Amino acid sequence: MPETIESPSGKALKKVASISTTVKADSKPKPVKIKADPKTRLEENKEYLKNKNVKAFISSIAKAEGGDYDLKYGGVKGKKNDPWKFSDYTTHPGAGSDGKTTAAGMYQINNGTWAEMGGKMGLSDFSPDTQDLLAVEILRTVGVIDKIVDGNIDPALSAASRRWAALPQGPNLPGRYKQPYMKYDDFVSNYKAAGGEEK
Description:
This protein is mainly alpha-helical. The chain has seven helices and two strands.
């Protein structure tokens, strides 16, 4: 005879069936994302900036992008009285010559990327030091900073070209987007001239 139980409302209920399951153990490791403390992240990025390969790599990105610490999109490096030059580094300078593109600074970092990457380090200014740290944070975010430290620049360049349109994807490869880009050999030449070593 089926077991009878009483519901919280006082109604008699009959147990009709039950099922039991065995939990399967999954031995595969699961990635766990832990949000890093901004101060820790900032200090780690400052350490990465001391590495000669990292410094050379971001220097080569800057050459490819044609930016300068004080230029908005449309500015020309070295041009006197450039209307797209800025002097206020307290925040991202905003849109450049076309009124909508916000790429700015040495690495032509747009407003959204500045907020995202700067937020990871607790930074809210756009000073030259912050711009360098933002470039490092982008390289960490795309997962190639350790490759750069090791001098393994080809895979690093392939990943970085997704974030910087002026970069080639690798040896004998064009840029990823339909716009001017630096040739691979020129990137490597700039990288080595800036003190970088290649694996």
